Amino acid sequence: MAPVAIDSSALPPVDTVAAAHPLKAANRFKQSLNGLSDKPLQRTYRGNKEGTIHLEGIPEFDDLYAKRQWVKEHLAAAFQYWGKLGYGEGLSGHITVRDPVWPDHYWMNPIAVHFSSITVSKLCLVTPEGHVHPDGAQLPINTAGFHIHSAIHKARPELQAAAHCHSLYGKAWSVFGKPIDILTQDACLFYDNQAVYKNFGGIVLAPEEGKNIAETLGPKNKVAILQNHGLLTTGMTVGEAVYYFSALDRLCKVQLLAEAACANGLEKKVIDDEDASFTAATLQNPENVYVNWKPEYELLVEERGHIWMK
Q1: Residue 26: its pLDDT value, please?
Q2: Exposure of 153 by Cβ count < 10 A (0-12 exposed, 13-18 middle, 19+ buried)?
Q3: Locate the Class II aldolase/adducin N-terminal domain: which residues (predicted)?
Q4: DSSP one-letter code for 180
Q5: Chain segment 243-267, per-residue pLDDT in tens
Q6: Cα separation, 218 vs 188, whole angstroms
Q7: Planar angle of CA 248, 253, 183, nearest 5 degrees
Q8: Alpha carbon distance 93, 242 (integer Å)
Q9: Do the domain assignments include residue 113?
Q10: Residue 60 to residue 74: CA distance in whole angstroms
Q11: 85, 37 contact by CB (below 8 A)
């Protein structure tokens, strides 16, 4: 039988169909975690029949010094990635990660060094009091970075890494003092997982301001939008914190584009709580977020070798 051309303009809009058949709309298929693996990473991939093909997640270490080296290499690579994305903004921007050997110390980038030139040997080890330790690079660090990150590491001892810089779209959306809407599948990373710090008190040069930011983050959120300032993200690994950051910056761009379209008469469709919660249960798992960072790390290795590991 020959195909028949259909005039789509003659068809009623989808919303009209749903309104005419409310039972069909109400019975729309909803996914559930029932019957799925209790390991979120395993939900995301399929291997061979024999079960010998796996997607590798966060590595485990028996040797804390080996873990320290791994942590530092990923931290340096994260700055290379930020440089690649054009996040550099003068003296601003910092990522910290707890030292596996001395958990009350953390590694951090020096101030006034471009992200793209950060290597392992340029990373500073910072003491709990905020001083540069002799075991790392002997370079000055960012004062605001110390106040913000030290407060977060104290308030949330389970978090291993924190990231903040003045990315373009994060800054632009921050002026509204609002969380992003859950508009896309990727945005479910931030469902019930974002705070907004609504007070801009100037450049952070006092410990009280860092403490206020940490308190705003709360006991469970991984990210915060700092009004009139930018984005702050955290994680159990450098990779998790850095992926959260780049994903949130991109979604700030999506939000800005969506708001512009709304101003011209289009209507936003926000993902409902049930679907967002279901999706977030997989996307927000720390290992899954880390694995989202792995392709960027591995691409850097292919493109640049191991220049940041020295």
Answers
A1: 57
A2: buried
A3: 73-256
A4: P
A5: 999 999 999 999 999 999 999 999 9
A6: 19
A7: 70
A8: 12
A9: yes
A10: 15
A11: no
> Cα–Cα distance between 276 and 211 in angstroms, integer?
31
Q: Is 12 a domain residue?
A: no
Helix/strand/coil percent split, the chain, to 5: 45, 10, 45
Sign of the C-alpha dihedral computed for residues 237, 242, 243 and 244 taken in this order: positive
Q: Is 298 part of any domain?
A: yes
Q: What is the pLDDT of residue 23?
A: 45
φ and ψ at 304, to 5 degrees?
Answer: -120, 5
What is the phi-psi region of residue 46: left when phi exceeds 0, alpha when psi lies from -120 to 50, beta otherwise? beta
Q: How many domains is the chain built from?
A: 1
The CATH number of residue 103's host domain is 3.40.225.10
Pinpoint the alpha helices (H) of the chain. Answer: 14-20, 22-26, 40-43, 64-85, 143-155, 168-174, 207-217, 238-262, 273-283, 286-304
Which residues of the chain are modeled with pLDDT < 50? 1-12, 14, 16-18, 20-23
Indicate the pairing of strand 194-197 with strand 223-226. parallel
Residues with Cβ within 8 Å of residue 161, at least 6 apart in sequence: 75, 95, 96, 97, 98, 234, 235, 236, 237, 238, 240, 241, 242
Short-list 71, 115, 77, 128, CA closest to 97: 71
Using CA atoms in the order 36, 40, 41, 46, what is the torsion angle rounded to 10 degrees? 10
- Would residue 36 count as lying in a domain? no
Token pair, residue 102, equals 């001395």
Burial class (CB in 10 A: 0-12, 13-18, 19+), 287: buried
| Confidence (pLDDT) at 25 | 54
Q: Which of 55, 46, 43 is nearest to 294 (CA)?
A: 55
Looking at residue 92, what is its pLDDT?
96
Burial (CB count within 10 angstroms: exposed 0-12, middle 13-18, buried 19+), residue 133 = middle
The count of C-alpha atoms lying within 13 angstroms of the C-alpha of 156, restricted to the half-sphere facing its C-beta, is: 25
Tens of pLDDT, residues 283-292: 999 999 999 9
Amino acid identity, position 177: G
